[in-house]
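Course exercise 7: structure representation. Students receive a sequence record and must write out the corresponding structure in token form. The form below is the worked example handed out in class, using DNA-binding LytR/AlgR family response regulator (250 residues). Read each field label carefully; the graders check that inputs and outputs are placed in the correct fields and that the protein name is recorded exactly as given.

STUDENT ID: A-19
EXERCISE PROTEIN: DNA-binding LytR/AlgR family response regulator
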Amino acid sequence: MQILIIEDEPRAANQLQNLLKLLEFEHEVLEILDTIEDSVSWFKANPAPELVFMDIQLADGLSFEIFQKVEVQCPIIFTTAFDQYAIRAFKVNSVDYLLKPIQENDLQQALDKFLSSKKPSGLDPIMLKSFLADLQGVERREGILVKEGDGFAQLRISDLLYIYSEDSVSFGVTAHKRVIIDETLDQLHPTLNHAQFFRINRSQIVAKSAILKIDRYFNHRLKLSVVDDRGQEFIVSRPKTSEFKEWLNR
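STUDENT ANSWER:
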């Protein structure tokens, strides 16, 4: 059984492979991909695998974006850390979805469902088109709850210059202060206005209005100068460079 794994967390990819071995599922991993861009390139250059395990939240966006750029004609088992994406996964006609951390029994059930299907197929194009339209029309949040003293306060999203993660804690920076946010970047990113905010790498989201200067950086990356950088380096990861340039031109 030839499978493709699309997962941007090495630990999660390793755990999946270990579970497949534990369940004695005969398979060959063709590739492990971690970005939308690399996944699109792979599907364009290779025959469809027999099965894909696909993480929904990748470093450069939601994996559903892959289907907007290339036709995927194979069964998919989605993986996600968030229940909110479970219904979305079924809307695009996946074989199944698995919540992280993946449990042995859940993986076995998903594999049984896949193997029992007489004619496992790819995604329903009509369902997919409808789903993507719904996804793009999701209402973006205007405020965010942040810690303030012994309590909480609401901060306007439009006031944020950038958001970053450090030692598993999320911080938001405005022109006047830095605040702690009780959400991960994976949870925050889908809810932001993507016309105004861009996730330049796994640990940083930057507002377009905060960017002062853009310089070339080694290994085909970009380095940003932003308002009130607080000693942080802002490097656009290589897989996101072309998308970032397009975003700036909008």
